[in-house]
Amino acid sequence: VQLQASGGGSVQAGGSLRLSCAASGGAFEGWIIGWFRQAPGKDRDFVAALGWSDSLTYYGGALSGRVTISRDGATDEVYLQMDNLKPEDTAVYYCAARSPGIKAIRRVSGYDYWGQGTQVTVSS
User: Fold this and answer.
1) Distance of CA 24 to the CA centre of its chain
2) Average pLDDT over residues 16-34
């Protein structure tokens, strides 16, 4: 399984970014694709996740109300649309894949594979 995160960059406060996670190397039926973020010196926090098969969505406290996760079935990409970005949203954003099973969706430990991360920098 390989995950390729992209779409990060530098934006001013109030701006938007759409991150993309390209998944390959697996069938992914029943899997969960999640996004986490990690600011320097802080823990990796859950942002959002989506069920590959049922498209159920899960959101965490980070970017609450300002983020939407979705999937493009034609390209096997999962998107994270982030709006009204704030300087405190500055972090490396990672996508991750969770195989089927009884594992926490909102915890780092629940995921089996990780992408390389993409930097998001929000200036005031």
Assistant:
1) 16
2) 95
